[in-house]
Amino acid sequence: MTATPAQKQLLDLLLSETEAAAAKAQALVVFDLDDTLFLTANRHLRILHEYAAAIEARHPEAASLLRAIEREKLRYAVTDTVKDAGLADDLARDLKDFWFARFFKNPYLLEDDATHGGPAFVEEVVKRGGQAVYMTGRDEEMRAGTEGSLKKHGFILDGKRGRLFLKPRFDTPDVQFKAECVAKLKDMGLVTGTFENEPAHVNLFAEGFPQARHFLLETKHSGKPVVPHPAAHRIRHFVR
Q: Is it the case that residue 152 has pLDDT exceeding 90?
């Protein structure tokens, strides 16, 4: 996988700006996790296959249908994915509960792949004197799996060069949590860049940190009708 010249230039500029800022203050680069640093396709597919196994005896055709879903067909909402595939409504409703009981659990987090170029880019941020701040909508109950996944893929996580922030409560809206973190980040240092897959969160950081570069990962997002901030740079991965 290669980067376009424009993407390489933008990421290189952020690294240079982070290095310059680090000479004067603690430079921070903020990274979301799900569908930003991590790709969640494997997690979704594992759950779909487990559900297929659970209903195999009663619904063999539906089980085959679920196993045939390819990662390119996965949508943000699992119900949209299976409805596109033709799963009956009653099974789709049942699957939603099955999925919810697993998707946010620690063992399943280890299924995620790192977004292409992500670990190397974070390492370069740290080499330039910056601190990687993992600012995620996951909650504290997911800490073990999140830390395990970060370490599995080689992301720096030592509490100093790489720090992880999780929601105290699962039911706190992600945008509320991240809004509350803006003041905390300002106290921690100078934010030079942010990476998000949700337009609403990109906009939040663009307004809170106008001096920084903001990147929108064009992977998957919730589909909420939010227009991304005009200053946001669109990328698909972290390859330079």
A: yes
